[in-house]
From TrEMBL:
Protein's recorded name: DSD1 dehydratase
Alanine racemase N-terminal domain span: 10-130
Top-level taxon of origin: Eukaryota
Gene3D superfamilies: Alanine racemase
Biological process according to GO: D-serine catabolic process
Pfam (any one): Ala_racemase_N
Source organism per UniProt: Loxia leucoptera
């Protein structure tokens, strides 16, 4: 019910951190779900099934190996993998640093490689490094730094 309220009743544009959550929301009629963790090889079949079932099932990529894995496992029926490039702007859990020279090359490889198989939707950053903050100014500083890093990367 909360997710339906949060999406204005559209049941679209929801972000999940586990595939169990993705299945839960898909069963509840959500058909536009972003799995906000780079796809591990051992979860590829499950992600593929969700991508085939839903209108839009989006995933994160943060490495050339992840891109190659999706390219080697195309979705059937004319569907494409919809991917966001995961940037690590200080959280240190997942993603590629936006200042890493490979990050821009990876973004270009996703966008220009095989768009009929893998399509770049955008870039994604999670400010999980705010969890240890003790006050609002500290959270705001991380949000500003993350926003600046993402905008600088996208501009490049």
């Amino acid at each position: 019910e909360g997710a339906e309220l949060a999406t204005g009743g559209t049941r679209r544009g929801i972000v999940v951190s586990t595939l169990a959550e993705a299945h839960f929301f898909a069963a509840g009629g959500f058909d536009d779900i972003l799995y906000a963790f780079p796809v591990p090889r051992w979860r590829l079949a499950e992600c593929s099934a969700l991508a085939q079932r839903l209108q839009q099932f989006q995933v994160l990529l943060d490495s050339p190996q992840g891109l190659e894995m999706l390219l080697q496992n195309p979705l059937p029926g004319g569907k494409r993998w919809l991917v966001w490039l995961k940037l690590d702007c200080g959280n240190g859990r997942a993603g590629i640093r936006p200042t890493d020279p490979e990050a821009l090359a990876l973004a270009r490889a996703i966008a220009q490689g095989s768009p009929e198989l893998v399509t770049l939707v955008g870039v994604y950053a999670h400010c999980g490094n705010t969890y240890g903050c003790r006050d609002i100014p500290a959270i705001q500083a991380i949000a500003r730094d993350t926003t600046a890093a993402v905008l600088e990367f996208v501009t490049a």
